Amino acid sequence: MNVLKYSQWDCLFTSAGLPLFLFDIVMDVLAAVNFYKEEAYLCLAVLLVLLIGSSVLAQLYSWLWYSYDEFKMETKLEDFLKPILGVLHMFQLGMYIRHLAVLEAFMSNSNSNPSWPTDVVVYMNHDLNLLRFMETFWESAPQIVLMLTVIMQEGKPGPITGSHFF
């Protein structure tokens, strides 16, 4: 029987994922502000639809996964937030709850007397990573097409497209 392991490296990468997730949000807001300042309202609308749509889809999937698990909460945080978990997902906070739940599960399993099998922590981390991957794909693939379209229409890269680094 294979036993899944959740190493300290996994915890480190999961911990680094939360600030990077927040950094992505800041960069998306800056891109939207730049589109607004340049009066590129159609591009701004497309960008907002992509950003909001991908976030709503990820939150919906997260909520559905909690629902399909019949709300079997593995961590104290999830158990505490169980009555308002749906509301938190409506306010786009479900991914943050999953991040914190994985970190809580790792911390309680890193003790000499683990609270639950390591497999549970691994599966929680896999759920989080799959949600982040899906959101990244839903958001970034169309965003690349949008930015390439802007570059082709302008005829030169600019700060709005993030291509001024080339």
Question: Describe it for me?
Answer:
The chain has one domain. The chain is 74% helix and 0% strand. It is built from six helices and no strands. The protein has helices at residues 8-37, 41-68, 76-81, 85-90, 94-109, 118-154. The longest helix is centred in the C-terminal third of the chain and has 37 residues, at 118-154. The mean pLDDT is 79. The chain crosses the membrane at residues 12-33, 40-60.
Layout of SSEs?
Blueprint lengths: L7 H30 L3 H28 L7 H6 L3 H6 L3 H16 L8 H37 L12
Helix pairs in contact: 1-2, 1-5, 2-6, 5-6
The total of helices stands at 6
User: What summary fits the major beta sheet?
Assistant: none
Helicity, as a percent range? over 70%
Helix and strand sequence? HHHHHH
Strand residue content: under 5%
Number of structural domains: 1
Number of E-state strands: 0
What is the CA-based Rg, rounded?
Answer: 19 Å
Distance between the termini: 50 Å
Low-confidence stretches: none
Overall pLDDT metric: 79
> Assembly state here?
single chain
Q: Which geometry do the CA atoms define? A: elongated
Task: Label the structural class.
Answer: mainly alpha
